Amino acid sequence: MKRSDIVKMVGSGTAEDITNLSLQEALVKLGTYHIVCVTTGIYGINGALFRNVLTNKTYAVLARNTLLFKLV
């Protein structure tokens, strides 16, 4: 899966963008989560898709920021 696919999922409402949340806010939303996919490029990780195991909701981090690296 490419980063553009994750962006499309956010645009269609399939996934919720949590890119700009703090780590604590993101962990509250994610609860118990697993990593669905991680997108990579020449500079490393570009984005990731997560799923809350209990609620089955999907969340996306679309930027190379601290939250992405702490969750992955």
User: Which range does the strand content fall in?
Assistant: 25-35%
The largest sheet, given as strand count, sense and whether it forms a barrel, is: 4 strands, mixed
Structural class: alpha+beta
Q: Which regions have little confidence, pLDDT < 50, spanning 5+ residues?
A: none
- One letter per element, helices H and strands E, the order comes to HEHEEEH
Terminal CA distance reads 16 Å
Widest sheet: strand order? 1-4-3-2
Notes on the structure:
The protein has 72 residues and is an alpha+beta fold. It has helices at 3-12, 23-30, 66-71; strands at residues 15-17, 33-41, 44-52, 58-61. The longest helix has 10 residues, at 3-12. It is globular, with a radius of gyration of 11 Å. The model has no long low-confidence stretch (mean pLDDT 93).
Describe the structure using short key phrases:
72 residues, alpha+beta, four-stranded mixed beta sheet, 3 helices, 33% helix
Describe the SSE topology.
Elements: H1 3-12, E1 15-17, H2 23-30, E2 33-41, E3 44-52, E4 58-61, H3 66-71
Parallel strand pairs: 1-4
Antiparallel strand pairs: 2-3, 3-4
